[in-house]
């Protein structure tokens, strides 16, 4: 078993010296295949890469990213925040709680966490600071709630997991609804309790009162996006369209909203959105293809089987094994980006999950809940750096400190869903 150790060491070494993650995964995987099969590695490698990307369901990935990029170019994020404030202003801490609500809804129209942090954070944080909210409440609420986009459908990580594990993306989208709502509720409840205990962190709302007419008018700036996401997800859940077909409709609808309704994009803006989508999608797909080479090598030398046998052989209760796996994933998520962690860990851990008698759909939900913690923890927490970029007045150290209690809230909820899988599977089973 010395060869797998060498291969993993090469991968970690390449990452340590700053090599792109796709290069580290692809090169180390090819090295492993060469040590195991000689020159045939140069046949296996391209076959693995093509096999990973030759999936109709993967068409949904760039299309949902395109949909999110179009909507991110509109005032939808700002309008969502203002609508949430209009409806929740009577609560202490209403701006922070409104941030959670706006981020949750924006996550349902973008599927990318950093888009939510940028769109909502650029509006919410300055308003909270102007009205006397503590800097930790302002930063922590935006960074943590921005991660909801990873779980609430249409979720890009769930699409990637479905492509790697062969689990239905439609089922994964349905499975992400209850955990997504539960996590948003938990974050909002934590904020409410915190500002009740420490009222100096969130002064009571002292602005003008909102009438019912104001509240209804506030919805006027977001109804287009809400209807779009209802049609897209409704088409998937009802079986009328596949995720890829629904994503194409969603991208076209987002284009109409951005260009025709809001007139937020001219020709140059459209080209910029298309270019950004191509770069992001290309990077994700390249990482997925190269990670498949690495994963196929591990499967060839039966590393997943060895890990499964070793952990089951310990005689530990399945719940303890799962908690240990979750802790390892949280640790890895602090060091490796979400896409790489999914495509590398799933081929290794899925056999263990199946051997323990758990549903692969449930594991996909749990894995993405892990990734939600990963994107708000240093040193690779993209949400941290995104908020710093859109709100330069916040110091990075402040942002990192602000997320600590929110990480504990997310991890506590993760443990609940690990110990009680039926909560995640209730809605998919009901729809079936």
From TrEMBL:
<comment type="similarity">
    <text>Belongs to the TRAP transporter large permease family.</text>
</comment>
<dbReference type="GO" id="GO:0022857">
    <property type="term" value="F:transmembrane transporter activity"/>
</dbReference>
<feature type="transmembrane region" description="Helical">
    <location>
        <begin position="56"/>
        <end position="76"/>
    </location>
</feature>
<comment type="subunit">
    <text>The complex comprises the extracytoplasmic solute receptor protein and the two transmembrane proteins.</text>
</comment>
<feature type="transmembrane region" description="Helical">
    <location>
        <begin position="96"/>
        <end position="125"/>
    </location>
</feature>
<keyword id="KW-1003">Cell membrane</keyword>
<dbReference type="Pfam" id="PF06808">
    <property type="entry name" value="DctM"/>
</dbReference>
<dbReference type="InterPro" id="IPR010656">
    <property type="entry name" value="DctM"/>
</dbReference>
<keyword id="KW-0812">Transmembrane</keyword>
<feature type="transmembrane region" description="Helical">
    <location>
        <begin position="222"/>
        <end position="240"/>
    </location>
</feature>
<keyword id="KW-0997">Cell inner membrane</keyword>
<feature type="transmembrane region" description="Helical">
    <location>
        <begin position="172"/>
        <end position="193"/>
    </location>
</feature>
<feature type="transmembrane region" description="Helical">
    <location>
        <begin position="137"/>
        <end position="160"/>
    </location>
</feature>
<feature type="transmembrane region" description="Helical">
    <location>
        <begin position="406"/>
        <end position="427"/>
    </location>
</feature>
<feature type="transmembrane region" description="Helical">
    <location>
        <begin position="307"/>
        <end position="331"/>
    </location>
</feature>
<feature type="transmembrane region" description="Helical">
    <location>
        <begin position="6"/>
        <end position="35"/>
    </location>
</feature>
<dbReference type="GO" id="GO:0005886">
    <property type="term" value="C:plasma membrane"/>
</dbReference>
<dbReference type="InterPro" id="IPR004681">
    <property type="entry name" value="TRAP_DctM"/>
</dbReference>
<comment type="function">
    <text>Part of the tripartite ATP-independent periplasmic (TRAP) transport system.</text>
</comment>
<feature type="transmembrane region" description="Helical">
    <location>
        <begin position="362"/>
        <end position="385"/>
    </location>
</feature>
<feature type="transmembrane region" description="Helical">
    <location>
        <begin position="338"/>
        <end position="356"/>
    </location>
</feature>
<keyword id="KW-1133">Transmembrane helix</keyword>
<keyword id="KW-0472">Membrane</keyword>
<feature type="domain" description="TRAP C4-dicarboxylate transport system permease DctM subunit">
    <location>
        <begin position="9"/>
        <end position="422"/>
    </location>
</feature>
<feature type="transmembrane region" description="Helical">
    <location>
        <begin position="246"/>
        <end position="265"/>
    </location>
</feature>
<keyword id="KW-0813">Transport</keyword>
<feature type="transmembrane region" description="Helical">
    <location>
        <begin position="277"/>
        <end position="295"/>
    </location>
</feature>
<protein>
    <recommendedName>
        <fullName>TRAP transporter large permease protein</fullName>
    </recommendedName>
</protein>
């Amino acid at each position: 078993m010395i060869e797998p150790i060498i291969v993993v060491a090469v991968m970690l070494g390449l990452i340590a010296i700053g090599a792109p993650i796709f290069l580290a995964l692809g090169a180390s995987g090819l090295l492993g295949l060469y040590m195991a099969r000689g020159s045939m590695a140069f046949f296996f490698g391209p076959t693995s890469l093509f096999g990973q990307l030759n999936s109709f369901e993967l068409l949904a990935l760039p299309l949902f990213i395109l949909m999110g990029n179009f909507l991110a170019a509109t005032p939808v994020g700002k309008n969502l925040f203002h609508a949430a404030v209009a409806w929740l202003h009577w609560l202490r801490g209403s701006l922070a709680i409104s941030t959670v609500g706006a981020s949750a809804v924006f996550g349902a129209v973008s599927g990318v966490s950093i888009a939510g942090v940028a769109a909502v954070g650029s509006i919410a944080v300055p308003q909270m600071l102007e009205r006397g909210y503590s800097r930790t409440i302002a930063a922590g609420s935006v960074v943590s709630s921005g991660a909801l986009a990873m779980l609430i459908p249409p979720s890009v990580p769930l699409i990637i997991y479905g492509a790697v594990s062969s689990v239905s993306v439609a089922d994964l989208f349905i499975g992400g609804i209850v955990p997504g709502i539960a996590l948003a509720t938990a974050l909002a409840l934590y904020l409410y309790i915190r500002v009740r205990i420490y009222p100096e962190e969130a002064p009571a709302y002292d602005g003008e009162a909102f009438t019912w007419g104001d509240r209804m008018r506030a919805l006027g700036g977001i109804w287009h996006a809400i209807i779009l996401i209802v049609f897209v997800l409704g088409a998937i859940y009802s079986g009328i369209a596949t995720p890829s077909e629904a994503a194409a409709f969603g991208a076209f609808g987002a284009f109409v909203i951005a260009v025709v309704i809001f007139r937020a994009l001219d020709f140059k803006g459209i080209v910029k959105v298309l270019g950004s989508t191509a770069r992001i999608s290309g990077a994700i797909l390249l990482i997925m293809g190269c990670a498949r080479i690495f994963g196929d090598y591990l499967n060839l030398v039966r590393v997943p089987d060895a890990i499964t046998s070793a952990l089951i052989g310990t005689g530990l209760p399945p719940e303890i094994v799962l908690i240990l796996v979750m802790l390892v994933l949280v640790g890895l998520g602090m060091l490796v980006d979400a896409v790489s962690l999914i495509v590398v860990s799933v081929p290794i851990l899925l056999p263990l999950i199946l051997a323990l008698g758990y549903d692969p759909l449930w594991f996909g939900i749990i894995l993405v809940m892990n990734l939600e913690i990963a994107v708000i923890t240093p040193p690779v927490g993209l949400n941290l750096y995104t908020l710093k970029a859109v709100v330069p007045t916040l110091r990075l150290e402040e942002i990192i400190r602000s997320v600590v209690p929110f990480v504990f809230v997310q991890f506590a909820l993760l443990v609940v869903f690990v110990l009680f899988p039926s909560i995640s599977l209730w809605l998919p089973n009901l729809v079936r």
